[in-house]
Amino acid sequence: MQTYNIALIGFGGVNRALAELIQERFSEPTEALGFGLRIVAITDLQLGTWQNDDGIDPAVALAVERGGNFAAFPGGSADVDNERVIKESSADIVVEATFTNPTTGEPAASHVRWALEAGKHVSTTNKGPVALFGPEFRQLADDHGVRFEYEGSVLSGTPSLKLVTQSLRGLNITGFEGILNGTSNFVLGQMAAGLSMADAVREAQELGYAEADPTADLGGSDVALKVQILANDVLGGSLTPADVSVQGIQDLDAAAVSEAVAAGGAIKLIGAATRNADGSIDASVRPVALAGDHALASIQGATNAIAFHTDLLGTVTISGPGAGRIETAYALLADIIAIDDARRLAGGTS
Amino acid sequence: MQTYNIALIGFGGVNRALAELIQERFSEPTEALGFGLRIVAITDLQLGTWQNDDGIDPAVALAVERGGNFAAFPGGSADVDNERVIKESSADIVVEATFTNPTTGEPAASHVRWALEAGKHVSTTNKGPVALFGPEFRQLADDHGVRFEYEGSVLSGTPSLKLVTQSLRGLNITGFEGILNGTSNFVLGQMAAGLSMADAVREAQELGYAEADPTADLGGSDVALKVQILANDVLGGSLTPADVSVQGIQDLDAAAVSEAVAAGGAIKLIGAATRNADGSIDASVRPVALAGDHALASIQGATNAIAFHTDLLGTVTISGPGAGRIETAYALLADIIAIDDARRLAGGTS
């Protein structure tokens, strides 16, 4: 059975969780997956670079302490040499999970481009490269006979893009509505329970749901990128980030929240898109007062959900975690499974 | 691209809906699916048998009026000759959607057995053959290099079995809870709104949600078969129907329903199974008072849902229709897509 060589670009929470999974269960080929995973390179801003085409023991890499670096290992260095590792290592798959600027998509976008141009499959959790350069990267992947996968950019490991491409094939998806940001959903839930927005945000920060600067979560820009990615993938659109109209919850009136609760429903920050009869797509992010029996009204706390509207099945809704290091690492694994599917379908059994 | 020959066993609502779909969009290979579908045989208790290995025009078959039969067509007969058609037609795939006795699994079980023994793939919507003879039929299919698929036996076309095998691969599913019967869920919803059970059942019958004899829906036996099928597929069990403990809602006290509503929650008929540390599986059907924030508490009306408990993602919940002729026909299409996947993965591209 196949063992894939992988390069981990960025060794923060998500790629560390993937390394743990590989160590615990996926280094050898399993019957469940049909393949094994071997780490041949790791780069990280703090830790430097470690490349070893014979394989890196995940346990050793994970044990490097804060403040340390990879320099002591054969093939290791304190320098961060992403470009060389991505272009020259023996990796079949580049797993990109750096911190990335959502406006420029960098440095993730360059990592993705280098990998695809070098004929390596890419799995990324970063929204920026997908939202900003999706068409270019899909074309690059096609041109080089490899896959560009990004399940983790939407609902972490909860299947959203892959639900559609794997388990809803043959359906015509006409639109979707989603709760695509756990922080804002948690804040709205606490406001529904009577807290002020300021107190709800503070609680979210204390619980680790919200960043010190919650602007991207509350203002809707995080959701907007996910709406754009979903609309392009699921509805066949070619939207740019600017095509999504965005209204966040930062100015939401507590009275409006109470009013929705009193009516038996809830205000939710809904990211949605619909394909019109002429093929155009309307995409938006805005707070919506949902009736109590709406499929998304009862999605609580940090849980995320998407209701897909389809021609043959009506509405199919999936909900699950939308964040978390292990949950997002599972998205990377799901991407690798899809890469393996594609390889096997192309006849490359081994 | 591939065109599959299919035999439709039973030409009631579901297989008629599939014939309509084939006529409207799937007779020629499409880019979305990569294959086309050609009906080469139809059998039906009322209409008799029509076999034509050159292909049957779905529109012509669908136009046969009530009280008529297939005798006038070349290869047609007023006799119902399931065994010959299943064994001798040129069908690659036998689509089994007859009315079937849930206690014996017949006549569907014989149809499935004949087809698999003849080296034909099977897609069925019937729970009986899966629940009663699942291990035998899976083995038979393996022995003959074909697939035995039955997505429609659980949530009609809403992906449940295939969600797990396609989009949750690599996860360890530790258990599930589901609302697996739309009739009983509708009745419970109406009781929550203040109706008596008798009035709620009458309304369900008027809306076509409930049979004249609602025993299987309210008593839990329909849910029990689905729990058994899911437990065996998703948790790797080998349960028989008798291994599922069953308590229906037929004797449920209206006061208990009101009490759950007053507490902000709901009573739901929950089909559930859990794998224990020793590998044994507890499986049950019973009314459960759910808190308002439970993932299944807000599933309304005839909608079905399953919450899968997993090791890496926590709980992932899917909801959608659990019945309907077009919805169930989509389950057959999803089965055929899985059959095609397996063929292509085995290297049989064409």
From TrEMBL, chains A, B:
Domain Aspartate/homoserine dehydrogenase NAD-binding: 10-151
EC annotation from Swiss-Prot or TrEMBL: 1.1.1.3
Family assignment from sequence similarity: Belongs to the homoserine dehydrogenase family.
Function: Catalyzes the conversion of L-aspartate-beta-semialdehyde (L-Asa) to L-homoserine (L-Hse), the third step in the biosynthesis of threonine and methionine from aspartate.
InterPro entries for the chain: Asp/hSer_DH_NAD-bd, HDH_cat, HDH_CS, HDH_short, NAD(P)-bd_dom_sf
GO biological process: methionine biosynthetic process; threonine biosynthetic process
One Gene Ontology molecular-function label: homoserine dehydrogenase activity
NCBIfam families: PRK06270.1, PRK06349.1
Residues at which NADPH binds: T103, K127
Keywords: Amino-acid biosynthesis, Methionine biosynthesis, NADP, Oxidoreductase, Sodium, Threonine biosynthesis
Gene3D superfamilies according to UniProt: Dihydrodipicolinate Reductase, domain 2, NAD(P)-binding Rossmann-like Domain
Catalytic residue positions: K226
PROSITE patterns membership: HOMOSER_DHGENASE
Substrates-to-products reaction catalysed: L-homoserine + NAD(+) = L-aspartate 4-semialdehyde + NADH + H(+); L-homoserine + NADP(+) = L-aspartate 4-semialdehyde + NADPH + H(+)
Annotated L-homoserine binding sites: E211
Cofactor(s) needed: a metal cation
The protein's name: Homoserine dehydrogenase
EC category: oxidoreductase
Domain of life: Bacteria
Native organism: Leucobacter komagatae
Biological or metabolic pathway of the protein: Amino-acid biosynthesis; L-threonine biosynthesis; L-threonine from L-aspartate: step 3/5; Amino-acid biosynthesis; L-methionine biosynthesis via de novo pathway; L-homoserine from L-aspartate: step 3/3
Location of the Homoserine dehydrogenase catalytic domain: 159-337
